[in-house]
């Protein structure tokens, strides 16, 4: 049977729990109603009792039970987990952090190419798609406040961010100016691209900043002035997992 222990901070008012899940780059915090069950570490808190009871950065399986959090910690693979129950007092907070592998599909609505070979800075708006994979970080801040009539209300808000790499396919407009040919053909070239990105989770959609390089397919690839040269862009997409 799991071992159980209760601890509670010196309450400043009726105890209740709240969760704030967060993604740290920039953006709005999003209200949620339930902490997803999963493995978390205690990232930050102003509650001395929690700080003393749970070792810093210790990984726990956490469940939200109304105004209470249950933290299960297993010290060995075949040992019974230790269960801790925590009620967050009024005007206290705790931030939990979760990590996971992330896979997303993105579009790249535009690429900014630096000036090169006499061609000024370009803003390309051709179609581009990318498969992103990387590390996802979610931060959950639990707090409480007094609502109408003095009722203690849990506040649950969420943000998250990630970092990783991407690969994909797209197109770019090819002219004689960018292939050093005068006159030269004008057509939509097919490119493969890859790079790195930082992602912000806006809950309705994901947005990110990317830096990457393109590989132009076909005979003009060797003459293209942007072949394997860095570009900067914006990613938009949906979370797949």
Automatic annotation (TrEMBL):
Protein name: Outer membrane protein beta-barrel domain-containing protein
Highest taxon in the source lineage: Bacteria
Signal peptide: 1-26
Record key words, sorted: Signal
Keyword Signal: yes
